[in-house]
Structures
1.
Amino acid sequence: MSARLLIGLGLSGLFAAAGLASLLWTPHDVTSLNIAAKFAPSSADHLLGTDHFGRDILSMIMVGARTSIAVALLAVGIGMLGGVPLGLLAAATRGSLLDDVVMRFNDLVFAFPALLIAIMITAIVGPSAVNSIVAIGIFNIPVFARLVRAGALPLWTLDFVLSARVSGKGAARISVQHILPNLTNLLIVQGTIQFSLGILAEAGLSFVGLGAQPPTASWGRMLAESQTMIAFAPHLALIPGLAILLTVLCLNLAGEGLRDTLDPKSQKGAQQGAGRAAP
Amino acid sequence: MIGFALYRLVSLLASLIVASLVVFAAVEIVPGDPARFMLGINAQPDTVAALRAELGLDRSLVERYLSWVGGLFTGDLGVSYTYRSPVSGIVAERLQVSLPLAVYALVLTVLIAFPVGMIAAGRQGGAVDTLFTGATQLGIAVPNFWFALLLILLFSVNLGWFSAGGFPGWEAGLLLGLQALTLPAIALALPQASILARVLRSSLIDTLSDDYIRTARAKGLSAGQALRRHALRNAMIPVFTIIGLQFSFLIAGAVIIENVFFLPGLGRLVLQAITQRDLIVVESVVMLLVLAVILVNFVIELAYAWIDPRLRKPS
């Protein structure tokens, strides 16, 4: 296990734990306002100080972690549930019209960045955290479909798949029983990367008001609210931003560490940081 | 090459048709009648009907779709519900901010990414490489709108070198306009430059172990010369792919960054249109952005089929 993997998993685990803990306990109630205690500096009672409504920033960061992680995790789930079968299907029918249609569909979805999908969904049903999940999730589908297709294509030419065909298994059963298990590592690594991109995307969406709505605390909205006060209360902008930065950084480290551990072929330095698309 | 271009053109058209159907359908299923929304709940039924006719809302779905698509070609995008002026005029005005911002950011991205990626690859494993790789790791993880806030905090609030937002308009002079776009462009470019630098670095490192580089070194070129003259050109394919992908993220990022800096661009327009339920604006701007992404990727695919004939076979 590499140092990167340990640090990455350890610190992102810490944020996950803080998010989970917020379900049961936070130092203060994030919905209770206390204007008299606004802009309080760091103290024993409020470790990270308070915001313009006197809310405890540490508590909001904890609840924000929960929002970010839940949205990003569900979006990865949607991406996998939609993308993995599509990728398997495309690989199983490689070269056919169906394969071509699936791949063109992927290209098409790629033309809609998550933000544009979120804009359209918000135009239809109004803003909510669910919109972010759906928008980021839809954007994840072609990512996983391409990955699975590219990973599955070479497998289809291998002997063990041939022997499965000889024993009478159909393409669907081979895909699920023989191809998919060989793609697990690939999916874990990409899942981690999409998870970190999901956290960034969620923050962006809630920053512009398309994501989680008040009173749900979210890191993106904390930043949006801090903007007008940045001249005299910069800590309101610094703390949530650092939370996003650290979480994403740790997840990226964990993703790279996982890739090196799970896929010995990519352990050379030349591969570090490759294969990663834009957020 | 012509066969490949035609094949790509057909699939480009198919993508555009499907994309336009998706955008149109999405806006169509929105509950509520725009005419009633514009006139308020106390409007008389015949006033509403008259406005519906004026806006063309009384026509069939197919008719409206065709006239909308036709409008995309002729530049007649309809009339905004809230601005009460033609959408094409509003969009054209906003493009004067968004387009220069995107180009500015793309230029900065390339200007930062190429030296960083090339130097890191040239000194693979060295201290400079470690420093640059660490910096790009940070650059990828930074949310660009937070970075924008930090830039405002440092350069506007503390140093007072740039204004914290707003746009004076190009009439105020090229320099003032560029100055207003500088912080937004840096905020947009940093994460993209980090990604591009990393891709360039690993692509160069892959190429540097090829035989023709050894040959080039053997005939007396220095490591730097071999990298610049031979490796760089061959390492360009993945870099082009990423630049193409980045364009769509630049567009999405610009929507958010314009909002941070209060720039009157397409991004702010579309976000304001959502809160004002001005769906005809949302519909047109989203379609234009999608169109831009699809077109850029089409051009890039043609470009690398032209650079590398091996890529001309349909995948």
2.
Amino acid sequence: MDNMIEQLSIGSVSLVTLATAALLLIVLVFVTYGIYFERKVIGWIQLRQGPNRTGPFGLLQTVADVFKLLIKEDTIPNNADKTVFKLGPIISFIPAFVVLAVIPYTENLYFANLNVGLLYYVALSGISTIGILMGGWASNNKYALLGGMRSVAQMISYEIPLVISMVGVILMTGSLNMIQIVEGQAGGFWSWNIFPQIVAFGIFIIAAVAELNRTPFDLPEAESELIAGYHVEYSGFRFAFYMLSEYVYIYAIAGLTTVLFLGGWHAPFAFLSFIPGLIWFIIKFCSIVFFLFWIRATMPRLRVDHLMGLGWKVLLPLSLVNIFVTAIVLELLK
Amino acid sequence: MSIRTEELLVNVGPQHPSTHGVFRLVVKLDGEVITEATPVIGYLHRGTEKLAENLSYTQIIPYTDRMDYLSAMTNNYVLCHAVETLMKLEIPEKAEYLRVIVMELNRVASHLVWWGTYLLDIGAMSPFLYAFRDREKIVELFNELCGARLTYFYMRVGGVKWDAPPGWIDKVKEFIPYMRKQIEEYEKLVTGNEIFLSRVKDIGKYDSQTAINYGLSGVNLRSTGIDWDLRKQEPYSLYEQFDFDVPTSTDGDCFARYRLRIEEMKQSLSIVEQAVAQFPEEGKIMAKVPRVIRPPAGEVYSRIESPRGEIGCHIVSKGKAEPYRLKFRRPSFVNLQILPELLIGETMTNLVTIFGGIDIVLGEVDC
Amino acid sequence: MKGIVKGLGVTFKNITKKKVTYAYPDVPMNMPDRFRGVQHFEPDKCIVCNQCARVCPTDCITLVGKQDPNSEKKVKIIDTYDINFEICILCDLCTEVCPTEAIVMTNNFELATYSRDDLFKDLHWLENNNTLVRSENSTNLQPKAKPKPKPKATKEEGVK
């Protein structure tokens, strides 16, 4: 905590505000082009062109989409619980943005150097679920309700293996501070956490995809069953907020995976370290984002009961075993 | 204090992404478990059978295109076949070959649409696009042959409207190995996928007795182990000449139906392959038919194997140019009857899987 | 897991494959010659025999003939000829029965409009729709030498 207070006292308030605005801008640009990239990649996989009508190469497609959402009429269903209905997207979005603060991009470029960074991330990202449940409940729509319920069940079930799989990494580093976790992975790709913690990595990726509500775990919004799930009644900028929080979480999860398992800004080989750390970070980050899109274009959707079974019966015990094995091995190597 | 619970009444359709048209299903949900399901049909009803009573036989054929719009060729055939049986017409060999080729290609196209949309229901996007890419090739072939992409109106009483254009048979010949390769890729992409298997295995199970009681036909019947394919049991057209298998399975679940449809595509391709190999270059494509078709008074029921099952056409003729009564036995309509029973005790997710597995076309259900 | 990995391989391979989409509104679609598009009508050829109106399964053709002013004999020429494309199913039967190929198919298929009224196409529109005319049409062609107009052509239109 000392670190943070120190930082606050050094940097003026205006600088912090400026930095936050810059981050928001970066995130928005990421979301805009993340969606564009997703549609392009899935288009290519499906032998289509993807968006190519708005702007050169369709680069302005998402901008146009968002603009359309913003100027749309703001509709609230008659029987909806209006306060909760309005709060839902906000509660869903704020944590998604706030968690980005702890992700370090290079050893110097970060927003908050918390020594409980990981805990902060986990604690805040859990709040988003409430926003989704609120949206599903307040819409007063049966499909939305089913979607909201599924979403809560799913996110709670997968939050646990997600966190427990991180414990292995924490044990290896002995710190909850993200920068120290990355520093612990310095020196070539063999010292990245992905190799000693391969089980944890697998669990983490599966649980993260489930947390993101993306295919094959997109049951809350399963369009072929529940039409759109919890946001079926939302339109306009409220809907945009739900979408935004979904894509900001992709950003967060991709960043977190890079930091925890792929060595953050470190180059895979020592002779490649002339390339700046930020570039390495972006490369790793993008390949994870691509992986998420690639999976989406390939997989069918899981069934609710299988999803729960996988979470509680496979991933949770596996991640617990992983902790014990890690602890024992670390103890033996000491 | 006990918590008050109530059943949720959910309207699935008529506008719902996985009802494949305008089908409505009123389901009662206890949590996510279905306790009651009532199908509501008729949104696409056009009264084809009644309209047919005021139309000449040739004029009815384009209406059959619009029943099962995914396999218009088999629908064309069943009506023509019924009239031809009534009139005891001898069909030229070349016309029969053309009919078999287009019917089997149409079967492949129909199963491709089913395959793509079924995977879309289950949540995978890409198979849909892959299936439509390959269906497009068949559709293009049909477009070249008869000038339409969906409502072919290719067959006439006594033969077919068009001869194969130059080079068309060669294009079909090229298409067969291409399609075989694609089916292999489909299987690689989907059939082995563990998530897919967990979604379809042991879902929507019924035994052969239930299937017979409900009058199911086609793949829905064969998936329970009953070897009933009208192309084998009551060979019509030239099917006796061709060597093909009728795949069956005894599992009776959605996966069995999936496997059988994939197998049927392969078998259809092998029929097309044999047919184009034996295709006579010379010959007439129309039998000698009077300008106005007036079948003798009498009744006839002809049935053939459409991609969805037994499609039948019952004609009562009074010797006039219009039928006195025309009745289509539509496989989708009959197969749909088992749905409410299958759905009880299943979840919303399985609703989509089971409903998709039956493979209905709403144009045919409502007719 | 093996199946999933295989599936991932298939989708990855497809990224670089050739795209199969059409650039349709930018590049016009060329339909094969036999394509059944919107009809083209040539009033000069029409002998007002009413066969097309009678054979139409949806009764979408309405036509009226009149006495040919240049002829002393009882010869009919076409006065109005309308096709209602709200209900026309482009089934090809009218072109099939036409004894003089007065009505033929074209490969044009773009009929979309903002108003249903625009779908009611009259003689002039159909006459001007003269591009991409299909080469094979009628199977009912009369010998060119003597077109014989049928006297019963005056029967009210639209009756089978």
3.
Amino acid sequence: MRRAAVLLGFGLVLLWVQGGLATFLPPHFCPDLGLLLVISLGLWWRGLTSGLCMAAGLGYAADALSGSLLGLHALLRLVAFSGSRLASRQLNLRGPLPLAVFAACASVAYGLAAVGLTHFFSPSSPPSGDAGFRGLVDALVQALVTAVAAPAVSAAVQRVFAWAGEDEAARRPLLLEPRGPLA
Amino acid sequence: MPDFWKRIGAPLVFGALTLLAVITMVSDRGGRDASERGEDVSWWQGVLLDVASPIQKAVAAPADGARRVWRDYLALLDVRDDNSRLKSRVAELEEENLQYREALVTSGHLQRIAEMRDEFETPMLASEVVGLDVSPWFRSVLVDRGSGHGVQAGNPVITSEGVVGLVTATSGGAARTMLLLDRQSAVDGIVQRSRARGIVRGRGTADLEFEFVVRGGDVVVGDVVITSGLAGVYPKGLRIGEVEAVPDPGGRLIQTALLRPAVDFGRLEQVFLMLRRGPTMDLLYGEGGAREMAGGRPAPAPGSAAPPAAPRGPAS
């Protein structure tokens, strides 16, 4: 319970940092720290149910501070948490490079899903070809920036775990599922 | 049995949370539609905006502090020279102004100009931007005036430079404003020089796009695009932006030009909320909004630029 509260607080601090960065940097040059926290939770958090609840809670906090439809970030962060959890069962994502690559892919998918869901719930005319291309470029830039920040956020999450007094038994061990019968 | 619950617990929670998120999205969409019709947003949406307002203020505080230090101290090093230059300029302008007034009074136009100003004046409310959107996929800001100050969803938001956007949701003390840059923003505009008409859309980036019909659409780089007043949201004549590129249409009937917004959205601090809703919106959504504007509006807050009379500006 204490660890969950500390991590939720940490998530709000990251949102605060992200909001501060947004006043200085163009939007797509700010890393999506909230998404990175959720991905890190998927990799490191032991409890699946409590992790899902935390991802949704962090998503609703982002919704409150954003012009998106309420629930959009909550839904996408649930999916991001589940996705990183599932991916980490097949791949070792705990190294900096694999984590950065995964975060970049997740960021692009997240952006496309956010724009797609918004158009689905609030129908408006689709962007012109040029605007669509620019949007894609922005998504790639955002993915790159998010990827660069991913190892730092993951390390910070582990620090917070340690600071919150978490013992080794509570941290999720790396369990890679074999694809076929072991020789 | 415990094993069974352990196995389906997580999928159940995932399903329930997903369902909850979809329900809140649908409900929020409904709330925004109701808000556009002039109805109050639901209590929980109001509470959420009220809670978000101080948080976003706190989020923006360090950046505002740094900017203030820069503005108040570091950027004032040349202030003495500027001051003496501006003083002499003010003296020149005052003298010039006096001559114009004298000329106007002499020609009898002053009274007519005063009447015109009264006719077109719209009550406005000064407001501070207290928070930016934390998501890079949406472009909105939170301002520190809400329904308690007479602000309604659908009210245009401007600065002295031009159009900022539109209020999409309000609570007692805050209002969420969708910027022109947002992908969902669309404004009817005309080119000031050639009167070519088109639609200005947000792209989610720092610039805008202006869609117009190629045949008869005389648009060149440097043209200023203003609001046409025809879409029923913004009054006519507000500056939207300047054409910075007109790509080759390549045989298409609809051409898209790139616009540089008139407002510098990176330095948005103070905005003006126009306490009016276009008559077309009232016609579209029934008389409810109009009645509320005429009879149910709360007293104006300090800082309101004019008395809260029913808008008499040009049809929009």
